[in-house]
Amino acid sequence: MAKLETGSKFKIILSNNIIDGISDGPIKSDAILVEDSKIVGLGNRDEIKPPIGADAEIYDFSDSTVMPGMVDAHTHHNGFGDGRLGDELVKLPDEMLVLNSARNARKSLFSGVTTIRENGPKNKTMLELRKSILRGDQIGPRMMLCGRPISIIGGHMSYFGSQVTGEVQSRAMVRQLVKEGSDYIKITATGGSTITSDPLRPAFNLNELKAITEEAHKFNKLTAAHCTSTAGIKLSVEANVDMIIHSVFKDPNGENRFDNKIAELMVDKGVYINPTLHVFRSQIWAMQKNMIDKPENKQDILALDKAKKEFDIRVEDLNKLIDLGAKVITGSDSSWGDYQLGNTVYEVECLELAGLSRSKSLKSVTKESAVSIGVDESVGTLAKGKDADILVLGKNPYDHLDNLWKVRDVFLRGSIVDRGSTDSLSRIRQIPPRN
């Protein structure tokens, strides 16, 4: 089984290209001193030494790039990324979902994602997996868990186990999730792919949303709301939700219409935006793959054209949010739909496609993502006092984002991850359809 190799108490990591997640490019320092799980020094290799009398294990990555481990703020580790709906996934026994989640956790970590925020598992499956990882029975990234998303009766993800009605039940569910060990509160503020829900209409009333956010904030828990309609975004922002997921601007009749006033309100309030662009693009890829070597079907062609237009609108809307100064972070939404775990890089690429600069795109999956989920005191940047979650790449991602795929090694809490073989990532990566 893959494992963490702890080695010496002190480690010195050398690289001529260190990206700290703070600066806009590689920094002048070329050495990192790690003590156990923490970064205790960052500077020139001639100056970085362990304490007198102590030995240090040297990792010479002079020809590689060293950067913070990636932080994916939106994952679904229960799933398979094979296109099945959550309505089908939930029919599987919890034991099977825990096992699959453990497999997915390894895929995430092997790809360089050292921190994840889980956005919707069934029952206590991810809470139990995290316990197993912390005991050392399994290997996986550090996890920020919602426990289960809060939904209305029959709402999106209601099948995962937390349906409420009214302010009293809303507050009670927050307290229950906090009791169980949830790190934040996920709200399905509109419908979604769940068969019994409507993605174009708000799920909760404003008083219910306010009850959830007030109760969560009372316990120092952040909130994130799934929003696939303009009305849902508006209510969530008014209720002081900390992060808007998907951020789809659609009217009740399904018309795409960007609302500048609501967008400006999100920016003014400092709400984080998790666009989840690639989960939509992955559906397009799946449709294209299904059409290969099949007789031409007019219905399939029309569906594909519609999906492409929808994706283009999503990209355009995000570009408008970026121009307004919105705080955009990377959250893949894998393994929802056809998006498999271990492919977070595709979402980073989509954010750059929508207008984020190269530097901001990289920070969206390191520093800014860590800030957005409340773990920036520990991870997201390479600095003294931070946990040594470190990604080693064969090439510099400032030259091309595709270099994020060139994973050479991963450190988690100062220990190098035994990924089993050098081709582990090539077996994880989803390949786009050929043109």
What does this structure look like?
The chain is α/β, with parallel strands linked by helices. The protein folds into 2 domains: 3-68 and 381-426, Urease, subunit C, domain 1; 70-371, Metal-dependent hydrolases (TIM Barrel, Alpha-Beta Barrel), CATH 3.20.20. It has 13 helices and 20 strands. The protein has a 6-stranded mixed sheet with strand order 1-20-19-18-7-3, with no helix packed on it. The protein has a 5-stranded parallel sheet with strand order 13-14-15-16-17. A 4-stranded mixed sheet has the order 5-4-2-6, with no helix packed on it. The longest helix is centred in the last third of the chain and has 27 residues, at 298-324. The two termini are 38 Å apart.
What is shown here, in short?
This protein is of the alpha/beta class and 435 residues long. It contains 13 helices and 20 strands. Strands 1-20-19-18-7-3 form a six-stranded mixed β-sheet, with no helix packed on it. A five-stranded parallel β-sheet has the order 13-14-15-16-17. A four-stranded mixed β-sheet has the order 5-4-2-6, with no helix packed on it.
- Total domain count: 2
Number of strands: 20
Number of helices: 13
Helix content: 25-40%
Mean pLDDT reading: 96
Question: Which descriptor suits the 3D outline?
Answer: globular
What is the CATH homology-level superfamily of the largest domain?
Metal-dependent hydrolases
Biggest sheet: strand arrangement: 1-20-19-18-7-3
Structural class: alpha/beta
- In whole angstroms, the N-to-C terminal distance is 38 Å
Low-confidence residue ranges: none
- What CATH calls the topology of the largest domain is TIM Barrel
CATH class placement of the largest domain: Alpha Beta
| Level-2 CATH architecture of the largest domain | Alpha-Beta Barrel
Taken as a percent bin, the fraction of beta residues is: 15-25%
